[in-house]
Design brief:
mainly alpha, 7 helices, about 70% helix, elongated
Length: about 210
């Protein structure tokens, strides 16, 4: 009696490489989307805190925090935004991501502690989730060696290749350009933001009209 022969269906190498390329592309898009959200919120937050706009003063008073906390948070937000968007700086990136997560998770906890509803802590919760997602999706050249995924390979330096100085300069120029653009947007939209936040504080009952 003949023995049945089982053949395994193997995907051709081209199909595997196409699938991997598609997965890497989706991961890069997700990384940069969440990272830009995180960095923009850090940039805007630093502007709001360092200028101590009315919304910041109202929130600090509502949550029971001292006024000078705004300046501390604003200064650290500038540093975190720079470190997260900049190339390399892998170890300091870990601290910046941790600080951003503590900032927004602390905001959620603070609002919950004073009895605020979802409308008050949903935004910081979303930013905390984006920070975690950006940290998990970051490419290998933005990770410390111990946290690199096995299938990851540095995007700017393959084995046997030399990183050109121009590549590093271009990465820094792009990072600085993004920061300058985000700060410009934050300053230009500040009047509209202050009006919107004033109305929001009135609707929440934190201040009178």
């Amino acid at each position: 009696m003949p023995t049945p022969i089982t053949t395994a269906i193997q995907h051709p190498p081209a199909a595997k490489s196409a699938t991997t390329a598609r997965s890497d592309r989706i991961r890069r898009i997700a990384y940069w989307t969440t990272t830009l959200v995180v960095v923009f919120e850090l940039v805007a937050g630093s502007v709001w805190n360092l200028l101590t706009i009315e919304w910041i003063e109202i929130q600090l008073r509502h949550l029971g925090y001292p006024h000078f906390l705004a300046y501390l948070l604003g200064a650290w937000q500038v540093g975190a935004a720079v470190v997260i968007i900049a190339p390399r700086l892998t170890l300091i990136k870990e601290w910046a991501y941790a600080g951003a997560f503590f900032l927004w998770s602390g905001a959620v906890a603070s609002h919950l502690a004073v009895g605020d509803g979802l409308e008050s802590w949903a935004a910081p919760l979303m930013f905390a989730v984006c920070a975690v997602a950006s940290w998990m999706l970051r490419p290998s050249d933005r990770r410390v060696a111990q946290t690199r995924l096995r299938r990851d390979r540095p995007t700017d330096a393959r084995p046997g290749e030399t990183v050109l100085p121009g590549t590093r300069r271009r990465a820094w120029v792009v990072a600085i350009g993004i920061l300058v653009g985000l700060y410009a947007v934050s300053f230009l939209t500040l009047p509209a933001v202050e009006d919107a936040m004033h109305k929001n504080a009135v609707e929440l009952g934190w201040i009178d009209e």
